[in-house]
Amino acid sequence: MNNPPRATTVATETATAGPIDAFRDTHGLFTMVAVDQRGSLRHMLSTGRQHSATDDQLTDFKAAVIDAVSGTASGVLLDRDFGLSAAQRSQCPVILAADVLSASQPGGPVDVALLDDDVTAETVHRFGAAALKFLLPWHPDRRHEAVDLAHEFMAHCKDLGLPGVLEGVVRPREGSSASPEGFAEALVTAAADLAETEPDLYKTEVVYTSHDDHDLATATSRAITDTLSCPWVVLSSGVSAAHFPAAAAAAAQGGASGFLAGRAVWSEATTAEDPVGYLRAHAAPNLQAITDRVRAAS
Hints:
With 298 residues, the chain is α/β, with parallel strands linked by helices.
């Protein structure tokens, strides 16, 4: 499955520019930051501390992330629950999460998603959102359910007149998908299934735990590129912050149009004595380091 050079792919996407292209940077790439975490962020901010993080602390943390990166990021992803203050101060376009997420097993990974009925036209206006996002857990034994839910999300986006960012994640990682090669195959199959719902931007995971996975990550990305008719980006969850710049670059070599990264940009701030000070000093450089690697690989 040979792809055209990345420059050709970018040119093709630009020639058919649509609303989602408002989230590209000046190089034509998506260099975006995700801060839509809810329960997982509360857990991160509470770890090692005497008391659980409050709602106000989540709200303030998200706003601090946006203050630190919105001059560098091409877009930001926020949630309805704790992201309004951050959205109102963002200097770049906002994607609003339209998912209600939970885990079927206490303490387990997110593997259940529902469409958030409270993401209405009024909510979109209040956040100034220019796109919606839906995280969709994909399981090989429930493929039709995932496609139906993706269709529901994209129909909701159409009703609101907004582009849809569909995030396909393989859940759970078990059985044949537990190995890197099996995980890669599942990612490609999920992308092929969800492509029929015609998202405006697709977001997915990248196979990368060390430099040894570079070739597999690039080959997987080529296969995902071949199966999609829209641009796509990688997320940083599941990849260490140290490895993510290389992982995103490997994906870009295979045709990914950038990234929508969260933890790789700001996770270390959650355990810092002064989270806001850490974000001011490190979040934008972390983001720029990822962006530089992706630009060099594209």
